[in-house]
């Protein structure tokens, strides 16, 4: 009888131990279930490894980079009210979008061009004008980056050129955001050509700004230009109308057959009639007076007019 009681006690002990094990397993199972439910309710929860990847900037595929968005935002803040547009430098379309800003510098140059609400090119700025380097840059035999220029409305006229605001020789491209219909003589031999030559000869310029004016909101043919830039430490302001300078000079009586006295006046080595240039008779000749008398700038130290003019930087040139 005692032996049977021992078996009964042993059996009860075993049953009790098995029951405890089942309870622990059930508790573990319930804990895992709770974890899974929490994870499902918080899908944004990341592992430490996932968080580390995000911190170093390796965004999951298909998501945009915050760095890229920041860069775009910075540009928009720099040019409020304008959309930033990328246009191929050789695009021949004459159409311009309104209220946009476009980089018209070739290669690594940064030259910004602005249009108004009518799609007219009204302003171009550059911190630094970098002269073309045909030894390292891909240029044609004529010194151009592209074989043709944008067909802005107006350039089809025989007397108008596809005029660059910033020339190829100064690193400008040939799309519509750098081209205006410009009088051919002005572009090739007038103030525009002279300005470009001055910058080339100086090896570049800084603080460049071009302001382009139009007679009305419909045309793409400017009425005048104003260029402001710094050359060898000197601030230069060139303002001129979009007209044939030869015709203007002729109407002012500044062209035609020159007699021997006039030829002496324009000679670099022979002194001419100062009174014909010094209109106010003060013994000093200004750049404006010299230009009005038909002299081209700069006036160099070997020119007879030089001693009557003011050379502020003493570099042997006036009006450079």
Largest sheet: 7 strands, mixed
How confident overall, as mean pLDDT?
Answer: 78
Q: What is the CATH T-level topology of the largest domain?
A: Extracellular Endonuclease, Chain A
Helix content: 25-40%
Question: Would you list the SSEs in sequence order as H and E?
Answer: HHHEEEEEEHHEEEHHHEE
* CATH architectural grouping of the largest domain: 3-Layer(aba) Sandwich
CATH class of the largest domain: Alpha Beta
Count of distinct strands: 11
| Number of helices, where a helix is a run of at least 4 consecutive DSSP H or I residues | 8
Poorly predicted residue ranges: 26-74, 257-269
What strand order characterises the main sheet? 1-2-3-4-7-8-9
Structural class: alpha+beta
Task: Kindly estimate the percentage of residues that lie in beta strands according to DSSP.
Answer: 15-25%
Give me the CATH superfamily of the largest domain: Extracellular Endonuclease, subunit A
- Approximate shape: elongated
N- and C-termini, Cα separation: 131 Å
Number of domains: 3
* Rg: 38 Å
Pfam family, one: Endonuclea_NS_2
Keywords: Endonuclease, Hydrolase, Nuclease, Signal
Protein name: DNA/RNA non-specific endonuclease
InterPro entries: DNA/RNA_non-sp_Endonuclease_sf (IPR044929), Endonuclea_NS_2 (IPR044927)
């Amino acid at each position: 009888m005692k032996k049977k009681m021992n078996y009964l006690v042993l059996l009860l002990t075993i049953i009790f131990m098995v029951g405890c094990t089942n309870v622990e397993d059930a508790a573990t199972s319930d804990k895992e279930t709770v974890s899974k439910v929490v994870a499902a309710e918080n899908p944004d929860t990341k592992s430490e490894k996932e968080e580390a990847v995000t911190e170093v900037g390796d965004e999951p595929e298909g998501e945009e980079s915050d760095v890229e968005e920041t860069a775009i935002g910075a540009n928009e803040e720099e040019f409020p009210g304008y959309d930033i547009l990328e246009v191929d430098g050789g695009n021949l379309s004459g159409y311009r979008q309104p209220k946009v800003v476009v980089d018209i510098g070739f290669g690594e140059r940064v030259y910004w061009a602005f249009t108004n609400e009518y799609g007219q090119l009204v302003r171009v700025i550059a911190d630094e004008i970098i002269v073309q380097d045909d030894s390292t840059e891909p240029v044609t035999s004529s010194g151009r980056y592209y074989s043709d220029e944008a067909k802005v409305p107006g350039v089809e006229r025989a007397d108008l050129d596809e005029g660059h605001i910033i020339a190829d020789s100064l690193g400008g491209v040939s799309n519509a955001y750098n081209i205006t219909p410009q009088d051919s003589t002005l572009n090739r031999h007038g103030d525009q050509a002279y300005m470009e030559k001055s910058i080339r000869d100086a090896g570049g310029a800084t603080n460049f700004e071009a302001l382009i004016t139009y007679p009305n909101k419909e045309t793409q043919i400017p009425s005048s230009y104003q260029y402001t830039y710094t050359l060898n430490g000197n601030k230069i302001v060139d303002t001129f109308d979009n007209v044939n300078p030869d015709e203007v000079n002729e109407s002012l009586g500044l062209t035609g057959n020159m007699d021997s006295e006039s030829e002496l006046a324009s000679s670099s080595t022979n002194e001419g009639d100062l009174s014909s240039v010094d209109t106010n008779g003060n013994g000093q000749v200004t750049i404006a007076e010299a230009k009005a008398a038909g002299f081209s700038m700069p006036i160099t130290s070997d020119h007879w007019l030089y001693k009557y003019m003011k050379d502020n930087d003493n570099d042997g040139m006036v009006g450079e």
